[in-house]
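PROTEIN DESIGN WORKSHEET
SECTION A - STRUCTURE
LENGTH: 70
TOKENS:
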């Protein structure tokens, strides 16, 4: 780039802030950049719990007595 009295040579002082922004963006995982999950969605996700396998119900016993064991 050519410097003139009206356009002095660039000293690069404003590039430090740009480098900080680039480094901050590089620290974010690519999946979060492409498919961000809003915080309120993540906080309200239901907690998974164990369930019985399909077909494992014991129809000859009350539900309160059913177990995951034979």
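SECTION B - SEQUENCE
RESIDUE ASSIGNMENT:
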């Amino acid at each position: 780039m050519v410097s003139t009295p009206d356009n002095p040579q660039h000293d690069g002082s404003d590039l430090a802030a740009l480098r900080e922004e680039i480094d901050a963006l590089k620290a974010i995982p690519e999946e979060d950049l492409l498919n961000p999950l809003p915080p309120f969605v993540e906080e309200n996700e239901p907690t998974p719990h164990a369930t019985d396998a399909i077909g494992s119900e014991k129809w000859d016993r009350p539900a309160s007595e059913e177990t995951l064991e034979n």
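SECTION C - NOTES
Helices lie at 15-27, 30-34, 39-43.
The longest helix spans residues 15-27.
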